[in-house]
Amino acid sequence: MDWHQLWTIISLPDNIPIVGLMFLIPFYTWYAFRQAFANDRLIDQLDADPEMAKTHHRKTQPYQKGWAREVHVWPYLLRIEFLSAIIVTAILMVWSITLDAPLEEPANPTLTMNPSKAPWYFLGLQEMLVYFDPWIAGVLMPTLIIIGLIAIPYIDTNPLGNGYYTYKQRRFAIWTFLFGFVILWCVMVVIGTLIRGPGWMWFWPGQTWDHNKLIFEVNRDLHEILGITDPILYGIFGFLVVGGFFLITAFGIHKLMTLTEFNRKILARMTLLQYLTMQVLLITMIGLPAKMAARLLFRIKYVWVTPWFNV
Amino acid sequence: MAEQTTKTTEQAQSSNGASGNGKRLFGIDPDAIKAKATEDINALKKPTRTDLYKSIFRVKHDDTPRSRTLGVLSNVFLHLHPAKINRDAVAYNYTWGMGGISFYLFWVLTWTGVLLMFYYHPTKVQAFRDILYLEHDVPFGKLLRNMHRWGAHAMVLTVWLHMYRVFLTGSYKKPRQFNWMIGVILLVLTLLLSFTGYLLPDDQLGFWAVTVGTNMARATPLLGHEGPFGIQLGMTAYNDVRFALLGGSIVDSNALLRAYIWHCVAIPGFAATFMIVHFWRIRKDGGISGPAPMMLEKEIKPLRR
């Protein structure tokens, strides 16, 4: 266990946000779910008791008869904003006094940094480069992430859970987002920052970053493993494999979307276009861990090789 | 001539004195001035009643509901807010305050950024030296640069957490779908702002980060010379989308200048514009989304198309 190496990586000033992320994301996830479960318990009560549903103010926030429904922005909101501005300034000041922004040697195109890393928030994309060609990892995936995020309100046809924390009423949406944001995005960022060392090789936390480390791993294309040598044949074969992955995953997602009575009810509210958009986005999202598994477990480089692009 | 002038003055004085009990000085009654001065000094004891004060502050700042409302409504910056909000909407456990903190950090970054611009030249010769100068010679230069960098990192984090909260509360749902879209665009602009700033110190860290980042543009389908169908469309290292981003085929002086202009002028301008729309939509969509009264499954209304 090389504690010095671990400390060197963690205490790197530019890595402080990641260390913060590793605490902030779990904290706020817990904080949100605590309220979601509290709300869910109230929803159960309201569901069971129609009389209560008529009279209750339907929030877990305290409420008493005669309380004004609204408060003045001056001072009740402004004092919060003012206070948070002061607190943020104080934190930023302390952070800036105690830690210096990194400055390396002058830019030198003839001397490659090893590892040369993008800013920490893009390390998820850089980590994706291990598993996909740059046109997928660096262009297609980011574009689909942006389009997918924008599409969320237009494909989520569940009218419940609008403006309050809940888990019970939005299981599918919440699991999808947790999977995409916390598991894929944040974990990939953490791997890219803390795990990947010289040569973008995998170093477990506490393992010494050995610049002379060599790994003799042979990645092969899927068709090579199966012994298909004709370019036209393996082009078609790759298309079938990718197509098959799309179909099987689509089937699995459809199973999830029809798993419960409630899910089926929400599905019935979707148009065909909404349904297909959601399927394509979710399948692409699952394509990432699928390809990661293919690479890490079976040393498969490409599943589909064509003269123009490889997947 | 001199005698004549003196005589004229004396005449004027004596003629004035004749009509003003002999106490007037230069034609002004000292008692009246004294009275006026006392009045002014007394008025200063209540500065809030002066015209100067009233013209600037316009409304009383006591704690009557009317003044509280006017204090928000008659101020160009505060009128971003409504006069009153739902009593639960100020709950920290609901909002986490991350949107507001992101906006505040944007302001901190704008101010520190403008100050940094005074000491920075976006040229290969000077950029790196300017950073050294900032760190070692400019008063508080190091603090300024540190605040700018850590503020940028913090803003990326707070924007992520803000979106996380908005998702978990379902706040993107009707009628706020469009504002979520604006928010996603702001997320992208935040990341691009941070990324373009990375190159500016012109050190190894920024140089290789931007090299890695822009190398991906080479692989853009159709528009990059290493991307699918790029070669077929005549893309080379000297005319593809990466060339447009860098102003050349390598990260060099043109790339530095382009990053500088994107970072200091263009993207902040876009971001500010989208922020205006973002805040405007919050108000138009009925203010902050919650905590809203919970809706039950049996209350779902059938769809009307």
Topology:
The complex is a heterodimer of chains A (311) and B (305).
Chain A: H1 3-10, H2 16-48, H3 50-55, E1 70-72, H4 73-76, H5 78-98, H6 123-128, H7 134-155, H8 171-195, H9 222-226, H10 231-257, H11 261-268, H12 272-298
Helix pairs in contact in A: 2-8, 7-12, 10-12
Chain B: H1 2-19, H2 30-44, H3 51-57, H4 65-73, E1 84-86, H5 92-95, H6 98-117, H7 127-136, H8 141-168, H9 177-199, H10 204-218, H11 241-246, H12 253-284
Helix pairs in contact in B: 6-8, 7-8, 8-9, 9-10, 9-12
Q: Averaging pLDDT over every residue of chain A, what do you get?
A: 92
Main pleated-sheet profile of chain A: none
Sheet with the most strands, sense and barrel status of chain B: none
Tally the structural domains of chain A. Answer: 1
Largest interface: A-B, 103 and 105 residues
Q: Could you characterize what this model shows?
A:
The complex is a heterodimer of chains A (311) and B (305). Chain A is an all-alpha fold. Chain A has one domain. Helix content of chain A is 62%, strand content 1%. Chain A has 12 helices and 1 strand. Chain A has helices spanning 3-10, 16-48, 50-55, 73-76, 78-98, 123-128, 134-155, 171-195, 222-226, 231-257, 261-268, 272-298; one strand spanning 70-72. In chain A, helix 7 (134-155) packs antiparallel against helix 12 and helix 10 packs across helix 12 (272-298). Chain A is flat. With 305 residues, chain B is an all-alpha fold. Chain B folds into 2 domains: 31-79, no CATH class; 94-286, Up-down Bundle (Cytochrome Bc1 Complex, Chain C), CATH 1.20.810.10. Helix content of chain B is 61%, strand content 1%. Chain B is flat and about 100 Å long. Mean pLDDT of chain B is 89; it is low at 5-20.
